[in-house]
Amino acid sequence: MTKFLSIQEAMNTSSGRVAIRGWIHRERGSNKLKFVTLRDSSNIIQCVFERAKFEEQWSEIDKLQVEAAIEIEGEIKADARAPTGFEVQAEKIVIVGKSDTFPIAKDQSVEFLADNRHLWLRSRKMTAILKVRSTVFGAIDEYFRSEGFYEYHSPIFQAVQCEGGSELFSVNYFDKKDVFLAQTWQLYAEPAIFALEKIYTISPSFRAEKSKTSRHLTEYWHAEMEVAWANFKDIQDYGEKLIKHIVKAVLEKNKVELEILGRDWKKLVPTVEKPFVRMTYTEALKILKEKCKMEVEWGKDLRTIEEEKLVALYDVPVICTHYPKKVKAFYMTEDPKNPEVVQGCDFLAPEGNGEIIGGSHREHDLEKIKERLIEQGEDPTQYEFYLDTRRYGSVPHGGFGLGVERVIKWVCGLDSIKDAIAFPRTMERYKP
Q1: Looking at the domain assignment, is residue 104 inside a domain?
Q2: Domain annotation covers residue 12
Q3: Are 244 and 321 found together in one domain?
Q4: CB atoms closer than 10 angstroms to residue 178
């Protein structure tokens, strides 16, 4: 059997006879020569067909179109004029799958590309993004396991809300009402720390946010962690180390992909090499006023425009802490020095990418949790399973959630989060 090499492996050999296979990325030619740029998952390469060598197959070769699948054998050699510096002089071809006229050409609209997402995935841009995405997921898993965390899974169908009722997707669950798609694993994760102590997950989350911004999806991937015996600083430290590990992995493995995307990867280097900037919400408001001429009333959550102005002052992520209690979730611990703020934190990415991590130290006082639930219009009796975690040996603990697509958007330098996932789901799009 013929041993096929990937295109990158063939280029690494630099000379001699090779067998490669893939899909036609570009094609052009004349009555005597046909130039095909072949692509596979590893790279692209120019292949040259001389009619004199393929007289019997020429009519078929001449009709080949973009995205036809073919196998080629021939001599590879360096050629500075070729797109990737190498060329294959074809001597044999097998046409595996013909292609109709491919609907995607240059200068297609965003909506057209979204409608044809199943085909747009083949583009060099999307291929590069998906490779970076794979690295990011692998790095998350690698980091948590290296820190002694256990992978743990919580249900997607949930009977309680965690982040807010207006953002819940209700589902038909036989004859039951009040069943929702998970916004987060948190309420079902906290019970497990009393068994495993350090846990993490990478799973989809669902938010019914009526938002059309470049930073929101209704279905996204969530990397979450929860750890027993932790204080608030521990949670921030874990988050900083995780992001550093992710960015370092991408810089080590995906510089070629970042260059394909036109991403200046040097802007990511400070994230790996420098400590993150840490400040309280109150300090952030003071900085916004003094350096950005933006007056924000204390007690209001930071908007996107304010986050962007703040992070523009730094070349590393900003960890903003101690937000007003009234703008944060019921499970966050009040600060012991100031009950008006909570031990919660948001990690804000540079270059206007906004929040990528939200975390907190969890309230472990049973009565305070009940009070906060009632304040937010919730019925504590619906949370009995969660409240049990505070009745039987509660300990200080905390955790965070990282939006994986938001990290990918930032690392790849993308304009929209919709390109950070294969098939984006938004309030206006649920297919293909």
Answers
A1: no
A2: yes
A3: yes
A4: 12
Predicted pLDDT of residue 36: 97
Which among 239, 243, 230 is positioned nearest to 361, based on CA atoms? 230
Among 367, 295, 281, smallest CA distance to 326 is for 281
Write out the residue range of the structural domain in which residue 332 sits: 117-420
How much is the pTM?
0.94
- pLDDT digits over 157-203, tens only? 998 777 655 688 999 999 988 899 999 999 899 999 999 999 999 99
E-strand ranges in 187-317 read 198-206, 219-228, 277-280
Last residue of one domain, picked from the residues 62, 97, 132: 97
Query: Does residue 325 fall inside a structural domain?
Result: yes
Q: Which residues does 92 contact at the CB level (< 8 Å), separation at least 6? A: 72, 73, 74
* Cα–Cα distance, 273 to 346 (Å, whole number): 21
Q: Write out the DSSP string of 273-310.
A: HSPPEEEEHHHHHHHHHHHH-----TTSPPPHHHHHHH
Q: Are 404 and 221 in contact (CB under 8 A)?
A: yes
Q: Convert the pLDDT of each residue in 61-87 to its tens digit.
A: 999 999 999 999 999 999 999 999 999
What is the SS3 assignment for 334?
strand
Residue type, 186: Q
CA distance 247 to 271: 7
Distant-in-sequence contacts of 422-425, Cβ < 8 A, 24+ apart: 422/117, 422/121, 422/126, 422/130, 423/117, 424/114, 424/117, 424/217, 425/217, 425/218, 425/219
Are 38 and 163 members of one domain?
no
Q: How far apart are CA 343 and CA 232, in angstroms?
A: 6
The pLDDT of 346-355, averaged and rounded, is 95
Domain co-membership, 121 together with 93: no
Name the average pLDDT for the chain.
94
Per-residue pLDDT, 365: 87
Regarding whether 261 and 324 lie in a shared domain, the answer is: yes
pLDDT at 311 (0 to 100): 96
Give the H or E element holding residue 48: strand 44-50
What gap in Å lies between CA 132 and CA 37, rounded to an integer? 23
Beta-carbon neighbour count of residue 293 at 10 Å?
A: 8
Task: Check whether residue 234 and residue 364 sit in a common domain.
Answer: yes
Q: CA 363 to CA 409: how far, in whole Å?
A: 32
| Burial class of residue 237 in the structure, from the number of CB atoms within 10 Å of its CB (0-12 exposed, 13-18 middle, 19+ buried) | middle
Burial degree of 377 (CB within 10 A; 0-12, 13-18, 19+): exposed
The verdict on 132 and 86 lying in the same domain is no
How many angstroms separate the CA atoms of 300 and 303, rounded?
9
